[in-house]
Amino acid sequence: MQKIFLPIVALAALMAMPASAQKKGDAAKGKEVYEQCGVCHASATDEKKMGPSMKGLYKKAALKNGKKVSDASVTEAIKKGGNGMPPFEEILTADEMTNLLAYLKTL
């Protein structure tokens, strides 16, 4: 019984951790990933380039598509693209996406 109990306790502890604690991402590496985004999206100003500025993205109530700003909605927008933005689903790795989200949270 102890052999089964310990893995269950470890799994329960992991599930109880917030998602941000499970995989936080590296904002410095995310800034490197953002270089390809910066062609169309400003980061330091509210200036609109081809796409909306990412400055203060995680402080906004909603994305341009009306969805509440969250890791899931931002990830979906990046992966699927739309309104002239190409999809990045097959371009960015999972680690690059995690790092990019970490960087976007610093803006």
Characteristics:
0% strand, mainly alpha, 107 residues, Cytochrome Bc1 Complex, Chain D, domain 2
Explain what you see:
This protein is mainly alpha-helical. The chain has a single domain, classed as Cytochrome c-like domain (Cytochrome Bc1 Complex, Chain D, domain 2, Orthogonal Bundle), CATH 1.10.760. 45% of the residues lie in helices and 0% in strands. The chain is built from five helices and no strands. It has helices at residues 2-16, 19-22, 27-34, 71-80, 94-104. Helix 3 (27-34) crosses helix 5. The radius of gyration is 17 Å and the shape is globular. Mean pLDDT is 86; it is low at 9-14.
Question: Brief overview, please?
Answer:
By secondary structure, the protein is mainly alpha-helical.
CATH architecture: Orthogonal Bundle
Q: Compute the gyration radius: what is it?
A: 17 Å
What's the total helix number? Answer: 5
Overall 3D shape? globular
* Mean residue pLDDT: 86
What is the topological layout?
Blueprint: H1 2-16, H2 19-22, H3 27-34, H4 71-80, H5 94-104
Helix pairs in contact: 3-5
